[in-house]
Structures are given as structure tokens and as C-alpha cells.
Design goal:
Elements: H1 2-7, H2 10-15, H3 24-33, H4 38-43, H5 46-65, H6 67-70, H7 85-122, H8 125-157, H9 170-178, H10 182-185, H11 188-199, H12 212-236, H13 239-248, H14 254-284, H15 287-293, H16 301-309, H17 315-350
Helix pairs in contact: 7-17, 8-12, 8-14, 8-17, 11-12, 11-15, 12-14, 12-15, 13-14, 14-17, 16-17
Length: 354
């Protein structure tokens, strides 16, 4: 958390209104946005980067020391999930103040202004089309980056062989994989500037104004959090229940297969979709990576919102922010419903005689 607070940029930039920036991240971002040469921006990085590595060194030392035990593919599962029901209720109770303070209360006091802005946005088809394109562009990049980060995190944790062979080579192998987490741990700002410098090199210059820098930057920025979420999801999965469900999937009775498919969906597909939604939201709202590495011909909605926030609060800005929050969640809901229907209905359909 100290590392995250040290490298945080977006809140610091928005809260330091009419004052000289005092945080290094805002200072560096403003200098780069003011068309400072990239070489000068890169020369401003070593000091903060050294402090970040100092903050990271204890965690890296523990990870590298305990990697044979921590990065096992078959993580322990809960023997009896019923004992952990009170903890889930407690977690839900702890979420209620945050939901009320950061969601319900802002919506209640700004609802009429947001509806007025939405009406004005719908009455202007050109502006609405541009807003929809920007939101869908951001959602496409976020989904692709989240899928890439989740797959890489899954491969990082599935690398060790469960039977214990080649134990002498596993620690080095795991240490090399853990190095992939370092670019994301140094923060989006430093990572984006280093990637920008790399893609301006003569070897990678043909790929400079493409979708690759932004996709790579977002994927690397969320890879540490993806690693943690995938590890948490694997640890909460009951291996014995999955094995029993897989055995029941071969039942000759369509009704049993249908019910087991629904259970299997709740145990495997839904946690993966929920994990993907969280990571995609982090990518969607990452204004630092989007503003530095986006292609010239594309403008993600988060950069437009960030630029317009400096000119004051307007109804159209609030409606655009509301659409940017709701449309990705709506698309995710459609995907979750489609996968659930497919999991529940497909065993029945495939069992019908032809």
C-alpha cells in the first residue's frame, strides 16, 4: 500500500487544483504532457524508481525465498466451505458503507443532473456516436489486456510440476517468472514512459503508433494484481468438488448433467468472469497508460473524461461518466448470462436424439 500511494497519480493530479504539484508523479506527468523531450522525462525516473525498488525489496526477498512453496499449482482448498459462511457475510457487511458512500450517495445527489446530460447527449447523435465509440474502444482494450494478464498469471502459477520432478530447476524457473511482475509493480507512469522510450527505438518504431504499446502497457500494469487474484481464485476452489462435478458430467441422465453444469459454471466460469471484470475495470480506468501510450487515431473515454474534468463539472460530463461505468458492466452481464445459458441448456440440447 505504501508503494501504491507513492506512485499514485490520478487522485493527486485532480486534488491539487490551483496549487503547484508536490507529488513526483504529477510533476513528471505534467512535464511530459508539456512536451518535454522524452529523454529528459526518462532522466527524471531513476530517483523515484530507486525508492520504489527499496520499498519492494522486502516483498521481493520473501517471494524469491519462498517461491517453491508459494507458487504451487495445486493450492490448498478449504476442506469445509460451510465454516467460512460467516466470513462472507462479514465481508458483505464491510462493503455496505463503501457502496453507500461511493455509489448510492453520489448517485442520489447527482441523478437529475446526469439524466439532463444524458438527454442532451441523446439529442445530439454525433456526440452520442463519438461517446459510444470511445467507450467501446476502451472496453475492447481493457478486455484484451485483462485476458492477456489473466492467462499470463495462470501460466506463471501452473508452471511447477506437481509430482515434484526437477526440483533443482524449479526455483530458478520461478524467479525468472516473478521478474515479469516487476514492470507492473513500478507503477503505470514509469512503466508507460519506459515503454514509450522502447517503442521510439529504431527496432520497434514501426509499431509505435499502433494498438500494441497501449495493450502491452495495460497488461503489464495489471499483471501483479492479476497474479494475486488468480492465486486467490485457485485457493478458494475446492478440488474435490470440481472432480466430483466432472465425474457427474458424464451421467446418462440429461437432468443431472444440466444441474451439474450449472454448479460447474458457478464454481469455475463465474469466478473467472468476475476476476476478469475486476481486472478489465482497472485497465478501463487507467488514465496514465492510456494518455501516454494510446494510438493517435484513437481516444479512450477515460482520457476525454480526464481532460474535460479540468474545465468544471457539467451535465454532459456526468452522463458520459455514467455511461462509461454502466456499459462495460452491462456487456459483462450479457456475457455472464450467455455462458450460464450455454452451460445449463447445452447438456439438454446435446442429449436430444437426432
Amino acid at each position: 500500500m505504501a508503494l501504491t500511494s507513492f506512485q499514485e497519480f490520478e487522485t493527486a493530479a485532480l486534488m491539487q487544483i490551483d496549487r503547484y504539484p508536490v507529488t513526483w508523479s504529477v510533476w513528471l506527468f505534467d512535464a511530459h504532457a508539456d512536451r518535454q523531450p522524452l529523454s529528459d522525462s526518462v532522466r527524471m525516473i531513476p530517483g523515484p524508481l530507486f525508492i520504489e525498488l527499496v520499498l519492494l525489496s522486502p516483498a521481493l526477498w520473501m517471494l524469491l525465498r519462498h517461491v517453491p512453496k508459494a507458487a504451487v499449482s495445486s493450492l490448498p482448498s478449504y476442506p469445509d466451505s460451510s465454516r467460512y459462511q460467516p466470513n462472507r457475510l462479514l465481508s458483505l457487511f464491510c462493503l455496505l458503507p463503501g457502496i453507500g458512500l461511493f455509489l448510492l450517495w453520489p448517485l442520489s445527489i447527482n441523478l437529475f443532473s446526469a439524466l439532463s446530460g444524458l438527454r442532451a447527449l441523446l439529442n445530439n447523435p454525433k456526440m452520442f456516436q463519438m461517446a459510444a465509440e470511445q467507450i467501446l474502444t476502451s472496453a475492447g482494450f481493457a478486455v484484451a489486456a485483462a485476458a492477456l494478464a489473466i492467462n499470463v498469471a495462470g501460466m506463471m502459477q501452473a508452471t511447477p510440476e506437481p509430482n515434484g520432478r526437477n526440483q533443482s530447476h524449479q526455483p530458478l524457473h520461478q524467479k525468472l517468472f516473478l521478474l515479469l511482475l516487476l514492470p507492473g509493480l513500478i507503477g503505470s507512469l514509469v512503466l508507460s514512459l519506459l515503454l514509450l522510450a522502447a517503442f521510439q527505438h529504431s527496432l520497434l518504431r514501426p509499431l509505435y503508433d499502433t494498438w500494441l504499446p497501449m495493450l502491452l502497457g495495460q497488461s503489464m500494469a495489471v499483471l501483479p494484481r492479476s497474479f494475486a487474484l488468480v492465486a486467490m481464485m485457485n485457493q478458494m476452489t475446492e478440488r474435490s468438488s470440481l472432480h466430483s462435478a466432472s465425474l457427474l458430467m458424464s451421467s446418462p441422465h440429461p437432468e443431472i448433467r444440466r444441474r451439474v453444469s450449472g454448479i460447474f459454471w458457478r464454481m469455475t466460469t463465474f469466478p473467472g468472469l468476475l476476476c476478469g471484470l475486476v481486472i478489465a475495470q482497472w485497465c478501463f480506468w487507467d488514465v496514465t497508460t492510456a494518455s501516454i501510450l494510446r494510438p493517435v487515431q484513437l481516444e479512450p473515454v477515460v482520457t476525454r473524461l480526464y481532460n474535460e474534468m479540468h474545465y468544471g463539472r457539467t451535465e454532459s460530463l456526468m452522463s458520459l461518466a455514467g455511461l462509461a461505468m454502466l456499459i462495460p458492466v452491462f456487456l459483462w452481464t450479457l456475457l455472464a448470462a450467455f455462458t450460464w445459458l450455454k452451460a445449463v441448456l447445452w447438456p439438454t440440447i446435446s442429449a436430444r436424439p437426432r
